[in-house]
Design goal:
It contains two helices and 18 strands. By secondary structure, the chain is α+β, with helices and mostly antiparallel strands. The chain has a five-stranded antiparallel beta sheet, with no helix packed on it. It has a three-stranded antiparallel beta sheet with strand order 10-11-12, with no helix packed on it. A two-stranded antiparallel sheet has the order 1-2.
Amino acid sequence: MDNPGYVILTRQSGLMRSMDAIAHNIANLSTTGYRREALIFEEFVRTTGHGTDSLSMANAHVRNVDRQQGPLSQTNGTFDFAIEGDGFFLVETPEGQMLTRAGSFTPSAEGELVAPDGARLLDAAGAPVFVPADAASVAVAADGTLSVDGQPFAELGLWEPIDPLDLNRRAGSRFLPEGGAQPVEGGVILQGFLEDSNVNAITEIARMIEVQHAYEQGQKFLEREDERIRAVVRTLGQ
């Protein structure tokens, strides 16, 4: 196969991965704290020797997480928290510490704030957030200060990956910062709110149609290229 064929094949592979990402986004339209994901296409060009054509291939392995703010929904839940601005909540899971914008928590039997699957919410120092069982009132200020019965008791932390591009999606709205996480300032924590998915259904469907058309065009090119090669072989064989 000549260079144009390789270019189209690698591009087709990238378009298939892009379609998978779009389908995943659409499936998470209603997932709390979900961050839209897209693939970045790049082209690899390399010379194959003096006097010969260069080799060109497309690549779409790099995933880009959309940091755009998602809509906020008011729940009035005491342990529902939303972030306005930069930052993620840090939770402790069996796979390690992960970042998330999904802020729905409840007190466990031990008094620790946990996500629906049991992952523990960590504070600004990286320790589990604890709420006394006999607390009459719990309030969280915009800076993350958690007060119990009117007295400061803990501080919810906002975190970012040390490497801004180090967001490796694990499950739903969680990310594993393989290079570690660090505290970040500038974000505001809102009590009684949850952040919805930042996926725009209309935009994603339009993108899906665009990618599908691009894939179909690539298939037509490959079919024409195959016919051209067959014609050449038949001609040379006569």
